[in-house]
Specification:
The chain is mainly beta and 142 residues long. It contains no helices and 10 strands. It has a 10-stranded antiparallel beta sheet with strand order 6-5-4-3-2-1-10-9-8-7, with no helix packed on it. The mean pLDDT is 94.
């Protein structure tokens, strides 16, 4: 898969299972992949609900870029390395070590253009799983 395949807007739904607190979470929103000189800016905006608490606005920003050798490299918005995955696989995975925590992701592109990212995060103070489902954001034309 080419990096350009991600360009555009996607609806996203993220379920969160926090093992430590037992509070479920849900984020619903939109992710946009916008071309920049560095690659594609991933900008996510949505409403996050954790347990019974009121929903709050949530955002994330990353840069996705061509990592060479059929890979896509994901960096934090400040340019720091996050992870890399093989873009030619239907279910690539990657690991990000942030001692003392470890982040593992498994993407699933088998039903493209619907896709998902499943994260498992563990550390001394973290233990949660997140599943984010993406599908193209369709615009109605009148």
């Amino acid at each position: 898969m080419r990096l350009s395949a991600f360009e555009g807007a996607w609806t996203l739904t993220r379920s969160i299972e926090d093992v430590l607190t037992g509070r479920p979470g849900l984020l619903e929103g939109v992710a946009r992949f916008t071309p920049t000189d560095a690659g594609l800016l991933y900008a996510e905006e949505g409403l996050l609900t954790l347990g019974e608490a009121p929903a709050v606005a949530a955002t994330r920003r990353y840069i996705w870029r061509d990592g060479g050798a059929s890979s896509i490299e994901v960096t934090f918005a400040d340019g720091g390395f996050f992870h890399r995955f093989c873009a030619d696989e239907d279910a690539p995975s990657a690991v990000h070590d942030c001692p003392p925590d470890q982040y593992r992701v498994r993407y699933d592109f088998a039903r493209w253009p619907r896709w998902q990212a499943e994260w498992r995060v563990r550390g001394p103070r973290k233990d949660y799983a997140m599943l984010t489902r993406y599908q193209p954001l369709l615009h109605c034309v009148e």
